[in-house]
Amino acid sequence: MHSFIFDVDGTLTPSRGIIDKQFANWFEHFATHNAVYYVTGSDQQKTIEQLGISIYNLAVRAYQCSGNDVYEGSRNIRSARVDWDPHTLGFFQTELNRSAYPFRTGIHAEHRPGLINFSILGRRSNRTQRADYAKWDSEQNERVQIAERFNKQFPQYQASVAGEIGIDIVVRGTNKSQIITDFRGESNVHFFGDMCQPGGNDYELSLAVDEMGGTVHNVQNWKDTWDKLKGL
Question: Residue 38's pLDDT is what?
Answer without folding.
Answer: 98
